Amino acid sequence: MLVRWDPFEEMNRLHDHFFSGRGLAKQAFQLAVDIREEDDAFYVDAEVPGLSADDIKVDVEKNVLTLSGERKVEKEETKDKFRRVERQYGSFTRSFSLPETVDTDSISADLKDGVLELRLPKKEAPTPKEISVNVGKN
Question: pTM of the full predicted structure?
Fold first, then answer.
């Protein structure tokens, strides 16, 4: 089967893509995360290159850890009569269910060399409580 390429059709497709707003919309990006467990704590390392601490939000609610934020990167290159500006915008959200053994009041977060390092210290696991059953009392 012979497929014919029509440059005008391609230009119309690109025009529709960009001027409909879809080409300029913010894109979500996937946050790369490494998680490891050690004797004293869990550790979460999230790759956030180019982001500052102000661009990142860390929340814990009902034993769910949520990392969220927005990337706003603008790069400009000028050389002789040439100028190029690239912009990247995008938001991210990653949530993790925490085990009951995480001490959520003592979680710490540090940003170093484009990596968000979270330390989630452990606490003693809750022990089951036995409740006695009374017979014949109302």
Answer: 0.64
Contact 52, 73 (CB under 8 A): no
> Which of 12-26, 45-59, 108-122 shows the highest mean pLDDT?
108-122
CB 127 within 8 A of CB 114: no
Contact yes or no for 108/70 (Cβ under 8 A):
no
The count of structural domains within the chain is 1
Q: Residue 105 belongs to what domain range?
A: 28-121
**Beta carbons of 75 and 86 less than 8 angstroms apart:** yes
Task: Tell me if 132 is assigned to some domain.
Answer: no
CA-based R_g, the chain, Å: 25
User: CATH number, domain at 116?
Assistant: 2.60.40.790
Strand pairing partners for 118? Answer: 44, 109
